[in-house]
Amino acid sequence: MKKSMIVFAASLLAIPAVAAAQAPNDAQIAAIVVTANQVDIDAGKLAESHGSSAEVKSFGKQMVTDHTGVNKQATALVTKLKVTPQDNPTAQSLKSGGEKNVANLKSLKGAAFDKAYVDNEVTYHQQVIDALDKTLIPSASNAELKALLVKVRPAFVAHLDHAKHVQAGLGK
Predict the structure, then answer these.
(1) From CA 99, how far away is CA 91, in angstroms rounded?
(2) How large is the angle between the packed helices 54-81 and 110-131, nearest 10 degrees?
(3) Nearest Cα to 47, choosing from 131, 128, 162?
(4) Mean local confidence (pLDDT), 137-144
(5) Cα of 54 vs its chain's centroid, Å
(6) Is the pLDDT of residue 6 over 90?
(7) pLDDT tens-digit profile of 23-36?
(8) 25 CB contacts (<8 Å, ≥6 apart)?
(9) Cβ-proximal residues to 29 (8 Å cutoff; 6+ apart), any chain
């Protein structure tokens, strides 16, 4: 596992640790959700343009489309609720980890890029699901925010399954 992937994975693992100290409030959850989606949008755009296999390019495009849709829903909800996403250490860590992941991916070409991108997507989606289950959904106090998190969870599970499928295909 590349160093940047380890840093990125560690940033996601920090979500439950932060919650153990103090559960994030709805404004912090909103920032975490938007940041987590943007991180995957940025990596997906890179996969669309730099992926060497059609399957990786297609998966990257799907990540951009799906995560952009989630961010639109989250932004519409926080606007409706008059909640301003509140920056926090978890969101900052996600952003930093995402930037390091993209920088690492930009240094790779061909099959090495495809493998690093898809391996990260498997790890990333598993950790986002864990964060949703252990921290974000239980900590959300607003019913509509909690409902949105519950509603988008199956998409993250589908993304994880799809990433594992692509990952298995790359090994052949």
Answers:
(1) 12
(2) 30
(3) 162
(4) 95
(5) 22
(6) no
(7) 899 999 999 999 99
(8) 86, 139, 141
(9) 136, 139, 140, 145, 149
Residue 132: partners with Cβ closer than 8 Å, 6 or more residues away: 149, 153, 156
87 three-class SS: coil
Q: What secondary structure does DSSP assign to 108-136, as a single string?
A: --HHHHHHHHHHHHHHHHHHHHHHIIIII
Q: How far is CA 57 from CA 17, 43, 53, 115, in A?
A: 34, 11, 6, 12
> Which tokens is 148 given?
């949105």
Residue count of the chain, please give it.
Answer: 172
CA dist., res. 66 & res. 10, Å (int): 24
Residue located via tokens 């938007």: 34
pTM score, two decimals?
0.86
pLDDT greater than 70 at residue 52: yes
The 10s digit of each residue's pLDDT in 105-123 is 999 999 999 999 999 999 9
Closest CA to 124 of 134, 132, 135, 112: 132
